[in-house]
Input
Amino acid sequence: MKQLKLGIVGLGRISQIWIRALSGTEGMHVQAVCDIDPGKTSNFQTLNAYDSVDKMLQAEKDLDAVIVATSTKTHFDIGRLILESGNNLVMEKPTACDMGSFEHLARLARDRSLILYNALHFSFSDELLWYIEHENYLEQQLGEQKAFISTFSDPYLGDAGISKENEGLVGSWFDSGPNALSVLAKIFGEIEVTYSFLGKEGFQVENLASHILLDAKANSRNRLFGSIMTTWSSGVNRKLSNVVYERGFVEIDHTLQSVSIIEPGRAVNVIYKHDGERLLTHYIGMVRDLLEKINECTDNVDSARVVYKQLFRAIDLNRRITDARK
Output
């Protein structure tokens, strides 16, 4: 089997997960790394290390793809540079900061017959894949799907404020919105944001919390409604995607990596539990999908477009609602 050679730009926490997932996947290996901080590249003495994207692209002529895991606002410029150099691009979420920039990268990749792979890791969570595989069984037990509630909380606001690293994530909705939306898109396919509130409260990020209302189509039959809430100020790391049925609801717990049935008057029934390392499990699944996509010369732009269209629709709706109140 041909070994695919990859480069990584940005050597923060997420790139470490990428490297671990790639090292455990046959057929792929990291050849080059890049970061503007020499203290980070010095940790990779067995790899080709660079302090600028330009230097890496000029020196590494045989990369099969370049992964970008830098701060959100740098994604578009770095991604464009990589595609213009003739390399396949793997972009951490969110791929860009607006829909026009996303489409620009997608068009750039298409026109050059390159791959743009959008790294939406939550759609590879083990508990979500188990739920989807058993969706018909759960409907037989609980009746039709009626609604959904997603909550994504991260403890990024501390006594000292928000760290520089987390500031690079731009805000709660930019960071967690793609995760929540990719889960819902995988379950329902069709989703649409109908209302959004993005709260800031004076902090140095785009938004600290969000409350998003959506509708979706369940099993191509009944349309149902639900919400996404994201926050950095709860002090906890808790991520849930709950689906409400006629006779109870299913709790997809992304933090505990479990699926539970909750019915009125009955004890909580944990019907599935995964014990692996959460983020690593996501990225191993995503790396396997990436390997398949590169070997087949295909991308995931269409499925990512569903997610990003609603991510930026929420931002646009919030702006319009805010302007109307002035």
Q: What stands out?
A: The first helix runs from residue 13 to 23. Residues 21 and 284 are 5 Å apart (CA to CA). The mean pLDDT is 92. Residues 4-119 form a domain with the Rossmann fold fold (CATH 3.40.50.720).
